[in-house]
Write a structure and sequence with these properties.
- The complex is a heterodimer of chains A (159) and B (413).
- With 159 residues, chain A is of the alpha+beta class.
- Chain A has one domain: Alpha-Beta Complex (Sufe protein. Chain: A).
- Chain A is 38% helix and 17% strand.
- In chain A, strand 1 and strand 2 form a beta hairpin.
- Chain B is an alpha/beta fold.
- In chain B, strand 1 and strand 2 form a beta hairpin.
- Classes of the chains: A alpha+beta (159), B alpha/beta (413).
- At the A-B interface, loops of A face helix 13 and helix 15 of B.
């Protein structure tokens, strides 16, 4: 890596984020989705559509997304769709709450318990808390997930 | 300049006038390349505003006492300075507003809804700032006028053939276009546009928010009916904008906002408007800001608009030599006549990621859509970074940007 000028940005752009940003996981349309929502950061041009498939018992069976945006927003959506699979809706919402705390403050006092391992996977995004203008890039996917779980084809925004 | 040696400016002395330029950003020298969003302020402007508040402040046009008379005199002197700056024929043709956006909204209300007929049309262009799109959509929705959008070419220049076509049926009441694009840097041929509009029986408004900073503007030479610019991009304060409007048009236009200072007499039955431009300046105006704008005009005129223009041309040449050479960089727009505003995309990274990286190098650029969403759609890009130059920008800063962009591309590769 010849980007010596930017070495101190490795806290924000960790390899896992660059990787998920370049090759987002679950980047597809789910034709049999039960819930969808659009997320939009109008000021930035980050835009995504989220698809959630619910199991008969109500938990999240599958999640996927499509869209365009910065490395942070794409990586966050990629990691989120990976980690919420198999979770109950309540667990997914709780993870979203915890993630917002993590993104805004860099720490997450409530990230232990049964979701500790999943929150650990999201931890590489905690570096955004040093970049106030970028927090909304990281949280867009989670706002969109809430909108999808709320049941409408509502437009979510983390502005 | 026609064979003459271009006037030069003393960059070191100019940079010393702007205290903020010696601030450090994350331990690095502050490289400010976002003057197109809002320019920094020289000590001369800051000092004039402080002096006004410390020695000569009171409300204007109201008090029969010394301080108010002094303040009124200073406020009206600012109006005269703006009139000279634009080469207006009559000082009354200058209306102070809160911003360029306010000024365009004033025209959209008082002229668009107040004078134009619902059967008429307004022509804007694909490269307008939202401030010159949304007020016309609102006038269309409220008043029924038609909104036409003149195309631009792939090079980012106004498509004059399309403008002629849009004007052909004689229904256009107003052409409202930018004098310099805030994204592409394109300078539009104002005199020619005005001639075309006038021949078709339309009036013309220029959004000079960017242009007035970079070029000498002569509203009589280009024969503008309305010309708009803002203080804060011209090294002056926020909170003040300017609307130049020909007297006959102001005469015909109803007021925009009602309130104090814009009336000749008021009873509960009726009010009589004050003569223009007071008719359009309801309420206490931005007095301190007007004094700041006056100081900003004095400042740029002391350097000379010709010298500023020549300096900027050198920066544009430098940027055009460097930026397109960087692998993976795409510039938006290649207009022949352009100013120091460059929007670009990087193939390996989104604009926000690039801006965050540049910030680490102390370089401030804007990222996103720069209040010109339809223009980004026109070029099929989601978002761009924008570097915009001011009179304090150095060639070395352009090089620094180019070097940092090269490294940013490697970082995200």
């Amino acid at each position: 890596m010849s980007g010596g000028l930017f070495d101190d940005l490795r806290d924000l752009y960790q390899e896992v984020i660059l990787d998920h940003g370049r090759k987002p996981r679950n980047f597809k349309r789910l034709d049999d989705a039960d819930r969808t929502a659009r997320g939009d950061n109008p000021m930035c041009g980050d835009r995504m559509e989220l698809f959630v498939k619910l199991a008969p018992e109500g938990h999240i069976e599958d999640a996927a997304f499509q869209g365009r945006g910065c490395a942070i927003s794409m990586a966050s959506a990629s990691l989120m769709t990976d980690t919420v699979k198999g979770k109950t809706q309540a667990q997914a919402r709780q993870m979203g709450e915890n993630f917002r705390a993590l993104a805004m403050t860099g720490i997450c006092p409530d990230c232990g318990g049964e979701i500790a391992e999943d929150m650990e996977r999201l931890a590489p995004l905690s570096g955004v808390h040093d970049f106030p203008s970028r927090v909304k890039c990281a949280t867009l996917a989670w706002h969109t997930l809430n909108a999808a779980l709320d049941g409408g084809a509502k437009e979510a925004s983390s502005e | 300049m026609d064979g003459h040696v271009a006037p030069t400016l003393n960059l070191d002395a100019i940079r010393a006038d702007f205290p903020i330029l010696s601030e450090k950003v994350r331990g690095k020298t502050f490289t400010f390349l976002d003057s197109g969003a809002s320019a920094q302020k020289p000590r001369q402007v800051i000092g004039a505003m402080v002096r006004m508040m410390e020695t000569a402040y009171a409300n204007v046009h109201r008090g029969a006492y010394h301080m108010s008379e002094q303040a009124t005199e200073a406020y009206e002197a600012a109006r005269a300075a703006v009139a000279r700056f634009l080469n207006a024929g009559d000082v009354r043709e200058i209306i102070f507003t809160g911003s360029s956006t306010n000024a365009i909204n004033l025209v959209a209300h008082s002229y668009g809804r107040g004078v134009m007929q619902p059967s008429q049309a307004v022509v804007i262009s694909e490269m307008e700032h939202h401030a010159n799109i949304v007020p016309w959509q609102m006038a269309r929705d409220a008043h029924g006028i038609e909104l036409r959008v003149c195309r631009i070419t792939d090079a980012g220049e106004l498509d004059l053939d399309d403008l002629a076509a849009k004007l052909a049926d004689g229904k256009v009441g107003l052409v409202a276009v930018t004098h310099m694009s805030n994204v592409l840097g394109t300078v539009t041929p104002a005199a020619q546009i005005a001639r075309m509009a006038h021949e078709a029986g339309a009036k013309v408004l220029f959004d000079g928010s960017q242009a007035a900073v970079h070029r000498r503007v002569d509203v009589r030479e280009i024969d503008a009916d309305f010309y708009v610019f803002t203080g804060h991009k011209l090294y002056g304060p926020t909170g003040i904008g300017v609307l130049y409007a020909k007297g006959a048009l102001q005469e015909a236009m109803p007021p925009f906002l009602g309130g104090g200072d814009m009336i000749a007499e008021v009873s509960f039955e009726r009010s009589v408007w004050a003569p223009y431009p007071a008719k359009f300046e309801a309420g206490t105006p931005p007095i301190i800001e007007a004094i700041g704008l006056h100081a900003a005009i004095d400042y740029v005129e002391s350097i000379g608009m010709a010298a500023i223009e020549a300096h900027e041309r050198a920066l544009v040449d430098r940027a055009m030599a460097r930026l397109p050479q960087i692998e993976g960089v795409t510039l938006l727009g290649r207009a022949q006549d352009r100013g120091g505003v460059f929007a670009f995309a990087l193939d390996t990274a989104h604009a926000h990621d690039v801006a965050t990286l540049l910030d680490r190098a102390g370089i401030a650029v804007r990222s996103g859509r720069h209040c010109a969403e339809p223009l980004h759609e026109r070029f099929g890009v989601e978002s761009t970074c924008r570097a915009s130059f001011g009179l304090y920008t150095t060639p070395a800063e352009v090089d620094l940007l180019a070097d940092a962009l090269h490294q940013a591309r490697e970082f995200f590769r």
